[in-house]
Amino acid sequence: MLSLDKVFNAQTVLRNIVRETKLVRAYGIAPDCELYLKPENLQITGSFKVRGSAYKIAMLSEEEKQKGVIACSAGNHAQGVALAATKNGIKSLICLPDTAPISKVEATKGFGAEVCLVEGCYDDAYQKALELKESKGYTFVHPFDDENVIAGQGTIALEIFNDLDNIDAIVVPVGGGGLISGIAYTVKQICPQVKVYGVQAAGAPSMYNSVKCGEIESLSSVSTIADGIAVKKPGENTFALISEYVDEIALVSDDEVASAILALIEKQKMIAEGAGAAAVAAVMFDKFDLKGKRVVAVVSGGNIDVTSLSRVIDRGLLKSGRSTSLLIELIDKPGQLKDISRIIADCGGNVTGVHYEKGDTESVNGCFLRIDMETRDFDHVNLITKSLRAEGFKIV
């Protein structure tokens, strides 16, 4: 059974395995509250997952260790299992969905595991791992629905309390629920007045829906840039713990997650993956009543593929009004681009792209000009748009 003693024992066992990530005060991200970040993206393997997997493996019998372990993961749990198994001299086989970022696949191999890529998402990899477990006799290390794994994740709460007093709320990303189960259980045993809030991606709201309707619900599909929390079906243990100990769960969109990733890069010089930025997104976009509160947001991981990061940054710039594109209908004659450039420059915008397009315009001599720009925010975009219209240009 999960107990506070088990969480404290996990802290002792993990002392020489995991890194104690110190809270970081965040400025300029959520001005209405006093925000601190728990930077598990700086953890060994780049994610909190190593805590639960390492404690689970440490608790195995000698016979189980000799047979080896198997796990399934979108990536971060895989690396945690691989590292913990290798440190204990244990063979590990990891089933990953074939959609997992290449960086996570290679990192898992780098920590000493054998990798089996499975077509589909996390749940498909899970079924494959169960099949191999039965046929090969491995011990299955569940990424979230296991009491030892949950106890390992609960050590994050102990570190938070050790770093900071008078906390009002802790905001945690939710996929299968292992992280928030461990944190919420530990928090409510020690300081029950502290609120624990969960955050899921709107494209994968399995736990959100399950808690709302009072029973475990399985999604037919998931779609989100936060691949680390893209889980179709919550665990039974985690569902029970979350139902009892978590105060509220909210959803964030991919655009909000992208904005949070961008804010962490610019304001904190901190790289987070989609799942890792979900809690920060919830704080930024006022998903909970946190005004004037002392809040800790768990940045659960930083293992984002560089190619994905580039796309996310572009999306975050668009979402925050930092870049925009205007389509202008013109009469095709000399001097038009010069006038448009002057207006944009006078307003303080920076043109980054110009595209001339023929199209179905009102005039036979008409054309379209697409202008890509760097801007400060949406107010700045509106200023440029109004200025162009004031000088007779038609914004399509």
Key words describing this protein structure:
396 residues, 15 helices, four-stranded parallel β-sheet, six-stranded mixed β-sheet, alpha/beta
Q: What percentage of amino acids are in beta strands? A: 15-25%
Shape descriptor = elongated
Gyration radius, rounded: 24 Å
Separation, N- and C-terminal Cα atoms: 63 Å
Briefly note the structural class of the backbone.
alpha/beta
The number of helical runs is 15
* Helical coverage, percent range: 40-55%
Beta-strand segment tally = 14
Mean pLDDT: 93
H/E order of the elements?
HEEHHEHEHEHEHEHEHHEHHEHEHEEHE
Low-confidence stretches: none
* Main sheet: strands, sense, barrel: 6 strands, mixed
Lateral strand order in the biggest sheet? 1-2-10-7-8-9
Topology of this protein?
Blueprint: H1 4-13, E1 24-25, E2 34-39, H2 49-58, H3 62-67, E3 69-72, H4 76-87, E4 92-97, H5 102-110, E5 114-118, H6 122-136, E6 139-140, H7 147-163, E7 169-173, H8 178-190, E8 195-201, H9 206-213, H10 236-245, E9 248-252, H11 254-268, H12 274-284, E10 294-299, H13 306-319, E11 323-331, H14 336-346, E12 350-357, E13 366-374, H15 378-390, E14 394-395
Describe the protein.
The protein has 396 residues and is α/β, with parallel strands linked by helices. It has helices at 4-13, 49-58, 62-67, 76-87, 102-110, 122-136, 147-163, 178-190, 206-213, 236-245, 254-268, 274-284, 306-319, 336-346, 378-390, and strands at 24-25, 34-39, 69-72, 92-97, 114-118, 139-140, 169-173, 195-201, 248-252, 294-299, 323-331, 350-357, 366-374, 394-395. Helix 7 (147-163) crosses helix 8 (178-190), helix 8 (178-190) runs parallel beside helix 10 (236-245) and helix 11 (254-268) crosses helix 12. The longest helix has 17 residues, at 147-163. It starts with a helix and ends with a strand. The relative contact order is 0.12. The model has no long low-confidence stretch (mean pLDDT 93).
